[in-house]
Amino acid sequence: MPYVDGFVLAVPKAKLEAYKAFAGKAGAVWKGYGALAYVECVGEDVPIGQLTSFPRAVQATDDEVVIFSWIVYEDRAQRDAVSAKVMADPILKSEEAVELFDGKRMIYGGFQPFIEL
Question: Name one Pfam family in it (predicted).
């Protein structure tokens, strides 16, 4: 079964188009190093829950949108190898990347699927 990295972050609405353009570049980097799939989604129906929710998880403000994304790999070993290359790539270290969202509020992690229908 594949391995999946998941991400949730908040992007200022004023920077959404720039984020989308950057995400296209970032996705090409991930895929270029071997990721099987790279998906970025902008929140459309993400209500603020009373206790938990996507917006609360990333402390999204009224002028931000929630981004939910995932990357698919063959397995954990391939993910680790691809991630090492991606993190060293100059595109992801660029000033453009740093200015698009607050990385301290991003939630991310690796997941082992246990069912796929």
Answer: DUF1428
In whole angstroms, give the CA distance from residue 36 to residue 114.
18
Cα 106 from chain centroid (whole Å): 8
Ordered per-residue pLDDT tens for the chain, 117 residues? 899 999 999 999 999 999 999 999 999 999 999 999 999 999 999 999 999 999 999 999 999 999 999 999 999 999 999 999 999 998 887 767 778 898 899 999 999 999 989
Euclidean distance between CA atoms 117 and 108, whole angstroms: 24
Query: Where along the chain do its domains lie?
Result: 3-111
Task: Give this prediction's pTM.
Answer: 0.92
Domain 3-111: give its CATH code: 3.30.70.100
